[in-house]
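Private note to self, pasted from the team thread so I don't lose it. Backbone tokens:
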């Protein structure tokens, strides 16, 4: 019955609610989830996966996975990759899957700076668990039975497919990077109604990782030890989010603490600070492992927070990658 009520609520909101893109706290760990400009950026074959579970402490939990593989083609001075995103809500059984083909070009601007424009072509599929939806005329009270058919005028697709186009730009030097991503340039419709037109809002992200190398003259820090200021501003429709915080890299280990905020509050009662996100990771023999946990700071209740686990691997890792953006 609970599932039925939720699904009915979703039906009545199809014309008004716009879908929001899944986002990851560890955008700096697996930036391919945010920007196609990182395709081939390490100039080796690179692969990774990240899993995100949101609000496991309540009935409406959400699970999201992102996986990618990309490669560098020296003769084309370009990176090419494929990525897969899956997003599933456990209660409504809403399921979203999208496969993207990513291409990025490397352009050297001067001795220190590089420019990486990219394009991404995606094919998405979306479905709902409408088999659990119970309409009023299916209930036969007199006979105590539930009929399988309905004369309700609402006509719904069980599944829809669509093409999606995005672009990204990245500027980087040896230690820092700044990027812009625009997703859903063609504004595909994801309406489940046969005659509906619910277009995905444009997704904008402005993201950066600015390096502050630590002083090694007193022998307290190694040459590679650094602090990075991480930022990621995202806006889609009326919703916005800004993540900001430091990341400390010490040898093969890294730690970060980010504040997730709601800078453009459409509701005066909404919270400015929504969560505090902690992260720890380490590298070993080409592997990178990361774990993050988001502590809820709003009054939504005991949600169980949000946690992410990521693993990536660089094949044939070289000692030096000139002009490659750093991320740990």
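Design output:
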């Amino acid at each position: 019955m609970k599932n039925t009520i939720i699904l009915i609520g979703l039906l009545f909101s199809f014309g008004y609610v716009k879908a929001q893109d899944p986002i990851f706290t560890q955008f700096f760990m697996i930036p391919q989830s945010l920007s196609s400009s990182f395709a081939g950026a390490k100039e080796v074959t690179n692969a990774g996966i990240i899993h995100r579970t949101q609000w496991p402490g309540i009935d409406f939990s959400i699970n999201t996975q992102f996986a990618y593989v990309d490669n560098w083609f020296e003769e084309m001075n370009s990176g090419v990759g494929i990525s897969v995103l899956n997003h599933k809500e456990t209660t409504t059984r809403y399921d979203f899957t999208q496969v993207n083909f990513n291409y990025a070009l490397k352009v050297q601007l001067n001795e220190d700076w590089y420019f990486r424009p990219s394009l991404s072509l995606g094919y998405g599929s979306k479905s709902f668990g409408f088999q659990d939806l119970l309409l009023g005329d299916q209930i036969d009270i007199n006979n105590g039975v539930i009929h399988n058919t309905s004369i309700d005028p609402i006509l719904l697709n069980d599944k829809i497919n669509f093409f999606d186009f995005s672009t990204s730009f990245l500027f980087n030097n040896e230690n820092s990077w700044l990027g812009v991503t625009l997703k859903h340039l063609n504004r595909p419709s994801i309406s489940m109604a046969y005659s509906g037109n619910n277009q995905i809002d444009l997704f904008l992200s402005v993201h950066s990782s600015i390096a502050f190398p630590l002083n090694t003259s007193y022998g307290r820090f190694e040459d590679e030890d650094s602090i990075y200021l991480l930022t990621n501003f995202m806006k889609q429709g009326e919703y916005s989010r800004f993540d900001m915080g430091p990341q400390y890299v010490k040898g093969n280990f890294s730690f970060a603490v980010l504040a997730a905020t709601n800078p453009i509050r459409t509701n005066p009662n909404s919270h400015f600070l929504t969560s505090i996100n902690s992260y720890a990771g380490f590298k070993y023999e080409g592997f990178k492992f990361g774990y993050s946990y988001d502590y809820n700071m709003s009054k939504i209740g005991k949600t169980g927070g949000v946690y992410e686990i990521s693993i990536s691997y660089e094949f044939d890792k070289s000692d030096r990658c000139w002009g490659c953006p750093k991320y740990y």
